[in-house]
Amino acid sequence: MSQKNVQFSLAAHIVAVLGYHHGSSVTTAVLADSVRADATFVRRSVAKLARAGVITTTRGQHGACRLARPPTEVTLLEVYRASEAPPPFALHEYAEEPLCSVSANFKPSMCELLLDTTSRFESGLAELTVADLVGRIRVIETTYGANSINASRRALGTNNVPQTL
Predict the structure, then answer these.
(1) What's any one GO cellular component for it (predicted)?
(2) Most-buried pick from 24, 64, 70, 126 (CB within 10 A)?
(3) Which of 91, 97, 95 shows the shortest CA–CA distance to 109?
(4) Domain range for 20
(5) pLDDT along the chain (165 residues), means of 10
(6) How far apart are CA 26 and CA 152, in angstroms?
(7) Three-class SS state of 160
(8) Overall number of domains in the chain
(9) How much is the pLDDT for 5?
């Protein structure tokens, strides 16, 4: 059985909001409204992003967040690593059957493939910035209209858009 892990997606959503409103401070309440998640859950992600130096925060009654650097200088790899999400790929656990060549050799073979794939995934994220993500959001917003739940469905060509938290 697989489980969804949304840590990276949540962190990317947070920095996208901050990038969209670059130059302004955004409260965790506003972030929680955008993500449609409990503010406590959002604050945990905000804390990770702040520890990693991706965002800055101010505390108190008027506390808020902002990107630590311009959106063009924050890579999605930084956001991914800051989110502390588990690796994107994992092997299933099993007791090897020594008389079966596949069973006995699957783990080391698959590990090599997954290490290579993970490396390419991270290289791709290193090439993308928060500005790139915000740019895509703005294109969809311009093309399909702001604040439309159907915009993402039309942009993806599907009615099966993953649900938020």
Answers:
(1) cytosol
(2) 64
(3) 91
(4) 7-86+129-156
(5) 78 98 93 92 95 94 91 98 88 89 93 93 97 95 72 53 42
(6) 24
(7) coil
(8) 1
(9) 81
